[in-house]
Structures are given as structure tokens and as C-alpha cells.
Design brief:
By secondary structure, this protein is an alpha/beta fold. Helix content is 35%, strand content 31%. The chain has a six-stranded mixed beta sheet with strand order 4-5-7-8-10-9, covered by helices on one side. Strands 22-16-21-14-17-24 form a six-stranded mixed beta sheet. The chain has a three-stranded mixed beta sheet with strand order 15-13-23. Strand 19 and strand 20 form a beta hairpin. It is globular, with a radius of gyration of 23 Å.
């Protein structure tokens, strides 16, 4: 979703709550966002002033969709506003963030006056607060309540004019078995019917396979990312495939898999006119440029799962990721040979927009007729069941047919 779509939504359904984004820079032409977005919201309770500061991720895969504006670095912005909020007489400053747990820790560590961080984005279920010392050596509690509204976070803090004295109580509550709100339920049923009318109820409910994955499965997010990566590779017959797990996250299917579950497993659309989400793109990349592609995409700072290739990498003295010893099908790449690579639409369109080098190298990439949904469904139907040990079992199957395990590389986020 880009700025225009978000502006349209805010215009159609104006928020009746504080809409915070201190590090968002919005162009004046997006009047709905300009009218509703604020950097912070202040309250006063029994003579104690509290401020909520809103911060969102500046990760490049999201920032490039902000048209005629930008997302500033959240920690730099937080340092600016924590001073402003203190000067305005706020006793307690609470950061409401969508940065991810790793950056929440860095936020607390690099600031002085933020007393509590309520986070999101990385979908971590923190069953107890994580305490991070700030620049004044004060312990700052960080909390996060998982993903997709499955849990409700509840925290009680003891505050005074010097800030937070202590966390009195903190818990995550599973959102189950609650009494239905008729108005909300009517809206849910209405929306569900619209989706069923759009796609067809029979189409959505058709069974395509079974998943043995569980929330407790070891490294399940990485596993599911590789499953999607290899589904794309198989679907278009490429030699190498690249995917970013942030686009699927924890949305993997569990138990019987319907076509609706396949869609929920990769809920990505660029344009509402594209009924079935992102497409799989292909590009023929000369061996001499393979290294440049990997390094350019890796240095965007996003996690990546790459199948069909092995290589070693490390950070240089400037903190940039450098690749060496690239092998495809166990063989060193030939600099003059072209290699067929598959990408999800988001990596291609994002790469073309945010990196001149990637844009130049992949300028001749093209959209196939296969969507990511198609690729995932086809692989599930071939496999029948997604095994809980997919990474190991698929390696064993590949060993039987080719004598080699599947070539894979996982790159964590910065």
C-alpha cells in the first residue's frame, strides 16, 4: 500500500483515535493524512502528564512506498521529540512503535527520557517485559503482544512525576471465547461475504493439502520462507530464487490447508486490481553480475531466503555485506553465463525503486503469468503435506534424486 491508498482509506474511514507518526513526512497534497497524523498525544492523569510518541519503521522495503515524502530515522526523531516532550512538562514518555523488538531495544538504549516502549512489527510475544538500560542507565521496559490481534497486552504501571516507578502487572491475554459485539460481528460477516462473493466461496474453501507445521516448530518462520522461495523456483523453472521472510512472517498454514489459507499465508497486494496478489518475476542475470545482485539486495538490510545457490558472506570494515565463493548446483559461477533467477514482485519492484544498481541489473526482468499464490498452491498439491521438518526432509529427497542437498542461504536482517 502506498501513500495515496492510505490517504484514501483515512479519508473514507476517518480515525476516531490519535493517529501517530512522528517520523513520517507527508506531502501536503495528502490532506487526509496531514489532517489526522500527529507526532504525539498528551494526557493528564491526577496531575501527572503522559505523552505517547508514535514511531514507525524506516526499513527500505516500506519507506520507498511513501510518495513525495519519506520516513525519517526513528531513533533520531525520538531523540528530538523526547526533549520536546520533557520541555512541555511531560512526566512520562511512552513510545508506541512499529519497529520490531531488535530496534525497540536500540531505541531504549539510545534515548534518555523514554520510560516505556510498546512495540510491534516483529510479532514477538513477550510474556514478561524486556528491560533495556537507557543512556541514563535507567531500565526501560519493552513489551509486545505478538501478531494479528491474537493476544491482548495488558500492563499496569506505577507512575509519579519522576516517571515510571515500577511495572505493577503485565500479561498477554489470548483473545478467545469472548462475547460477540453485534456491531463488530455484523461488520466481520459483511466483509467475509464480500470476500466470498469476490473470489467465490467454493474456490476459497477448496482443500489443497495439509500442514504439519506448528507455532512451536523450530525456526518455523525461516522454514516457511524457504518453502515459499522454493515454490517460486519450481513454479517457473528457475535456477535461483530469492524471497524475504518479512513478507510472509508468521502467516504459515496449520492443519488442513484451503485456498483461503494459501492467500493468508502471503497476504501481499500492490494494486487492488491485481486480484491474486503478487506475481513471480524472472530475470536472466549474467554470472559477472550475480554477486552484485546479492550484495545490493542484502545491503538493503532486510532478511532474505535464497535457494539454488550457496555462498559465503561477511561484513567489511564499512559494515556492508560482501559475498564470495558463489556456487550454483555445486559449481562455481561462470562470469559469462546467464543464470535464471525468480523473485516475488515486491523484491523486483522495491529493488527497481530503491537501488539504482539493482534497477539497472534487473531492468530486463519480466512478470510471469504465475502468482505467488499459484506457486505455493502448486507446491502444496505436489507435496500433499508440509512436513514439520521440511528443511531436513526436502534435503533428503533431493539427495536421493541428485546426490546433493538443496542449496540454501539465509541472510538475517541488519
Amino acid at each position: 500500500m502506498g501513500t495515496q491508498s492510505l490517504d484514501d482509506i483515512v479519508g473514507d474511514v476517518p480515525p476516531n483515535f490519535a493517529y501517530l507518526g512522528a517520523n513520517m513526512v507527508i506531502h501536503d497534497k495528502y490532506t487526509n493524512l496531514k489532517n489526522h497524523m500527529r507526532p504525539y498525544k498528551e494526557f493528564e492523569i491526577d496531575g501527572i502528564k503522559l505523552a505517547f510518541l508514535g514511531l514507525t519503521t524506516d526499513e527500505i522495503v516500506f519507506e520507498w512506498r511513501v510518495t513525495d515524502g519519506k520516513i525519517n530515522k526513528p531513533i533520531s526523531v525520538a531523540k528530538k521529540y523526547e526533549k520536546i516532550l520533557k520541555k512541555r512538562g511531560n512526566n512520562v514518555v511512552i513510545a508506541l512503535t512499529h519497529l520490531g523488538l531488535k530496534k525497540d531495544k536500540k531505541l531504549a538504549k539510545k534515548t534518555k527520557y523514554i520510560d516505556l516502549v510498546i512495540g510491534g512489527h516483529s510479532h514477538d510475544s513477550l510474556y514478561r517485559p524486556y528491560f533495556q538500560k537507557n543512556r541514563l542507565k535507567k531500565k526501560v521496559p519493552i513489551v509486545q503482544a505478538g501478531q494479528h490481534g491474537e493476544k491482548l497486552g495488558r500492563i499496569i504501571i506505577d507512575i509519579d512525576k519522576n516517571g515510571i516507578r515500577k511495572v505493577v502487572k503485565y500479561e498477554l491475554i489470548d483473545v478467545v471465547n469472548i462475547d460477540k459485539d453485534e456491531e463488530v460481528d455484523d461488520y466481520v460477516q459483511e466483509t467475509k461475504k464480500e470476500v466470498e462473493d469476490y473470489f467465490g466461496k467454493k474456490y476459497l474453501e477448496e482443500l489443497v493439502g495439509y500442514s504439519a507445521l506448528q507455532r512451536s516448530t523450530e525456526n518455523v518462520r525461516m522454514l516457511w520462507s524457504f518453502y515459499v522461495t522454493e515454490a517460486m523456483l519450481d513454479s517457473v523453472g528457475s535456477q535461483v530464487s530469492m524471497h524475504t521472510p518479512g513478507m510472509t512472517s508468521g502467516n504459515f498454514p496449520i492443519g488442513d490447508i484451503t485456498r483461503k489459507d494459501v492467500m493468508n499465508s502471503h497476504p501481499r497486494w500492490f494494486d487492488f486490481k491485481d486480484k491474486f496478489g503478487w506475481y513471480v518475476y524472472r530475470a536472466k542475470v549474467p554470472g559477472v553480475l550475480i554477486k552484485a545482485v546479492f550484495q545490493a539486495v542484502m545491503n538493503l538490510g532486510i532478511p532474505l531466503s535464497i535457494s539454488g545457490v550457496t555462498f559465503k558472506w561477511k561484513k567489511n570494515i564499512f559494515g556492508k555485506k560482501v559475498v564470495r565463493n558463489i556456487r550454483i548446483n555445486g559449481k562455481r559461477i561462470r562470469w559469462w553465463k546467464g543464470y535464471d533467477m525468480a523473485f516475488p514482485e515486491g523484491v523486483i519492484r522495491g529493488g527497481l525503486a530503491i537501488s539504482p544498481l539493482v534497477g539497472w541489473i534487473l531492468r530486463k526482468s519480466y512478470r510471469t503469468k504465475v502468482t505467488v499464490f499459484d506457486a505455493i498452491e502448486a507446491k502444496i498439491k505436489r507435496d500433499g503435506t508440509i512436513p514439520e521438518d521440511y528443511l531436513n526432509s526436502s534435503n533428503k529427497e533431493n539427495m536421493k534424486s541428485t546426490g546433493r542437498p538443496i542449496d540454501r542461504v539465509f541472510i538475517p536482517a541488519n
